[in-house]
Automatic annotation (TrEMBL):
Pfam families: MFS_1. SUPFAM superfamilies: MFS general substrate transporter. It is found in: Cell membrane. The keyword Calcium does not apply. This is Bcr/CflA family efflux transporter. PANTHER family: MAJOR FACILITATOR SUPERFAMILY (PTHR23502), POLYAMINE TRANSPORTER 2-RELATED (PTHR23502:SF132). It is a multi-pass membrane protein. It comes from the Bacteria. Gene3D superfamilies: Multidrug resistance protein D (1.20.1720.10). Belongs to the major facilitator superfamily. Bcr/CmlA family. The keyword Transmembrane helix applies.
Length: 398
């Protein structure tokens, strides 16, 4: 039988150090992906390969992140959070360093998978550590802060990557990731205490079954997955819509994309401020209702005048709502389980990335010169989320 002692919850406000550290750990996605996007053409020339092969390195890292969570989360339930985190950070740092010296696309893709596997430790364990330390309103507000920090990185990372590539060879991006990895290893080693008090039987099988049988958790995890589906629908389609339908330049689109990225951070921060003033369910309900209304306005606009400013404003409201709901749905999902927290965080993250990953090609199947497919798919995700939210309320009362 597995036995575990619940760690003592933090009653005071989280320290600035803990907030920044866990926020950075949760942002391994933008760090590993967005920062090196400006370097893709240079990497293609340097490795003497095709654009398709270099772009596959994005998918390789994402696959690693999705799979890695399923191993690291349950492992942390057995041995605590520090050991898996330190191993993940060390491997991430070493793989980033190795990418500096690779000149073969096949090996480059393999190491990118390893980098994603290791980087998933930051994503899955930042959620688990927060759940170890906080509950109730404190947990929701802390997740809101993490999502705020997370939302800033997609804005900063590509700008930093572009600056590095303009001044130095493409390897400078991975030099920077190596330095970030070393900093996180040192700060986590000396500044992050163990938060999960475990006395597990090391031979006990991984307990995914208990997580999947938790109906309330799985319903709440589905809410976050649907929010992620709407987010990746926007990410996959927005560049084509702005550049092909509205004929914007690459620079103009980049500015709008950055402004929307700040909108995600603003939405998460707004959610944190509203937490405690009404129930989490009410906040989540508004988080689904507002983008449905705003998407409806976008759809009406696309079918009639197709005004650029009306579309851009309504889309920004949708993106802010995604940032708002990302934090709140993460909080209610993690709050609906008090055992197997690392495993639950792994299922939550992998499920969300799976739905998000499926949304990208689905929206592409319907063409890239109109905003209607993107708008329609976002509406579908948000409506299903509203329906599932009703089911979670029924499950809670039963």
């Amino acid at each position: 039988m597995i036995q575990s002692d619940s760690p003592q919850k933090v009653n005071s406000r989280p320290s600035l150090f803990l907030t920044i550290l866990l926020g950075t750990l949760s942002a391994f996605g933008p760090l590993s992906l967005d920062m090196y996007l400006p370097a893709l053409p240079d990497i293609q020339l340097s490795l003497h390969t095709s654009a398709t092969a270099v772009q596959a390195s994005i998918s390789a890292c994402l696959i690693g992140m999705a799979i890695g969570q399923l191993f690291i989360g349950p492992w942390s339930d057995r041995v605590g959070r520090r050991q898996p985190l330190m191993v993940g950070l060390a491997v991430f740092t070493l793989s980033s360093f190795a990418l500096i010296f690779i000149h073969n696309i096949g090996l480059f893709l393999i190491v990118r998978i390893v980098q994603g596997l290791a980087g998933s430790a930051g994503q899955v364990l930042s959620r688990a550590i927060a759940r170890d330390l906080f509950d109730g309103v404190k947990l929701t507000r802390f997740y809101a802060t993490l999502m705020t920090i997370n939302g800033v990185f997609p804005v900063i990372a590509p700008i930093l990557g572009a600056a590095l590539v303009s001044l130095f060879p493409w390897q400078s991006v991975f030099v920077t990731l190596t330095i970030i990895g070393v900093i996180l290893v040192v700060t986590s080693l000396f500044g992050l205490p163990e938060t999960s008090q475990v006395t597990h039987n090391q031979l006990e099988p991984l307990n995914f079954k208990a997580v999947f049988k938790n109906r309330l958790f799985m319903l709440n995890a589905s809410l976050l997955a649907l929010v992620n589906g709407a987010l990746f629908t926007y990410i996959a389609a927005s560049s084509f819509i702005f550049q092909k339908d509205f004929h914007l330049s690459t620079t103009s689109f980049s500015l709008i994309y950055a402004f929307n990225g700040l909108g995600i951070a603003l939405g998460a921060q707004l959610m944190g401020r509203l937490t405690g003033k009404t129930s989490d369910r009410n906040l989540t309900r508004w988080g689904f209702l507002i983008p449905i209304a705003s998407s409806g306005l976008m759809l009406l606009n696309a079918l009639t005048v197709n005004n650029f400013w009306l579309f851009t404003t309504a889309l920004w409201i949708v993106v802010v709502s995604i940032g708002f709901n990302n934090g709140i749905t993460t909080a209610i999902a993690m709050a609906s389980t008090s055992t197997n927290i690392g495993t639950a965080s792994a299922v939550l993250g992998t499920f969300s990335e799976l739905v998000g990953g499926l949304a990208s090609p689905v929206v592409g199947l319907f063409g890239s010169t109109s905003s209607i497919p993107m708008i329609s798919l976002i509406i579908i995700f948000e409506i299903i989320g509203l329906i599932l939210l009703g089911l979670t309320s029924v499950t809670t009362t039963n």
